[in-house]
Design brief:
The structure is a single chain. With 178 residues, the protein is mostly helical. It has 9 helices and 2 strands; from the N terminus they run ααββααααααα. It has a two-stranded antiparallel sheet with strand order 1-2. The protein starts with a helix and ends in a 6-residue tail after the last helix.
């Protein structure tokens, strides 16, 4: 399975992930969250309705899925609203999502601050390192991006999605919108 993922990464590098896990290799499929829900609401499969992201019966995994889908769709403010409903705001993955969404929304400095906080919480967060590196590439700070690539590799991320996407960004100068 790992070999298949690596082959897919080499053949379809733009199918990388947006604020997803290190193993998400396909874009999220649009659901009612992006098709019907408004103002940061999330589709609740149980009730088959749009509910406020802070609804207590929603779990964080459902919220993560919604944040990822909303970010991919470019609905950054809605994604931030859902992200604010997460139970642990200091968790590294939450901070990475904040960084990604803010960077993609044009608030690069704020995004970088969130990536740094994510790495302080978990220095082995390869996704935060990759997204930070891509932000550095976009701002022209190639040497600092290479430092993040070296850190990804040193922390066991060779041939992972975070390593491949940052390497591709360094090679082409183009970062991922996803």
């Amino acid at each position: 399975m790992r070999t298949l993922i690596l082959i897919a990464a080499l053949l379809f590098p733009m199918a990388a992930f947006a604020a997803g896990s290190s193993s998400d290799t396909t874009p999220p499929k649009p659901t009612q969250t992006t098709k019907s829900c408004k103002d940061g609401q999330v589709w609740d499969k149980r009730t088959k309705t749009c509910v406020d992201a802070k609804e207590s019966r929603l779990d964080d995994d459902t919220r993560y899925g919604a944040v990822r889908e909303l970010a991919y769709a470019g609905k950054y403010e809605d994604a931030l609203y859902v992200l604010a409903a997460m139970s642990d705001q200091s968790e590294s993955r939450v901070l990475t999502y904040y960084g990604f969404i803010n960077r993609k929304a044009g608030r690069t400095e704020l995004g970088m601050q969130y990536y740094q906080a994510a790495l302080k919480a978990d220095p082995d967060n390869l996704l935060a390192r990759s997204y930070m590196g891509q932000g550095l590439v976009a701002s022209g700070n190639i040497e600092a991006a290479r430092v993040q690539l070296a850190e990804i590799r040193a922390r066991g991320g060779k041939s992972s999605w975070p390593e491949l996407s940052l390497r591709k960004a360094l090679q082409t100068g183009k970062t991922y919108n996803y």
